[in-house]
Amino acid sequence: MPNSKFPKLLDYDALKQQFGEEESPTTQYCHTQVTQETDDALDFDEENQPKPTGLTGSRLRSYAFAVLTRKEYSKAELIEKLATWAMHREEVITLVEELSAQNYQSDQRVAEITLSSQKRKGKGPNRIKMALKTKKIDTGLILEELKETDWVEQAYQLKVRKYGTEVATDPKLKAKQIRFLMYRGFEIDAIMKAINRRVDD
């Protein structure tokens, strides 16, 4: 049909010889799709990868493990994170309970990590309790550690780093120090002892 309005079909064999291709475009496309699906199954958190959706069964479990290898999550946080991509919320709750029972997930570990991290950042007990509440973790998990911490010393060290060792006599400066330490989450009793402590005390 010399006068056909349709263009001549591409000769993939000729193109393959011309460009040195070992696979036809169709074969390459299929290979790319399979590779992509495999990559998604193995690593859900790679940058530029689409997030998995509608996960169930082993794929949901694999995703949960992938998430937990990157960071410790509280039980509540993990449920919400997985539920975003799972098919059924009930399956997520059951899975997280199982992971918690097997100690792959631990609110105790998250509480201890949060306490340690917040103390390094110069945060007092009130800010730490707030951080735990955000993660929906029972403060009772680290109650002993909170009681055993010398919060006066913590507040004093923070005050020294910010304002030096001199005890302020100016009411405005004292008020400023009190506001600073209250914002950091310290109790007023610990704050007053910290800002009035002298170097030789």
TrEMBL record:
GO cellular-component term (any): cytoplasm
RecX second three-helical domain boundaries: 106-142
Biased composition (Polar residues): 25-36
Keywords, alphabetical: Cytoplasm
Residue ranges of every copy of the RecX third three-helical domain listed in the record: 148-195
Role of this protein: Modulates RecA activity.
HAMAP family in UniProt: RecX
Name assigned to this protein: Regulatory protein RecX
Organism, as annotated: Acinetobacter johnsonii
Encoding gene, per UniProt annotation: recX
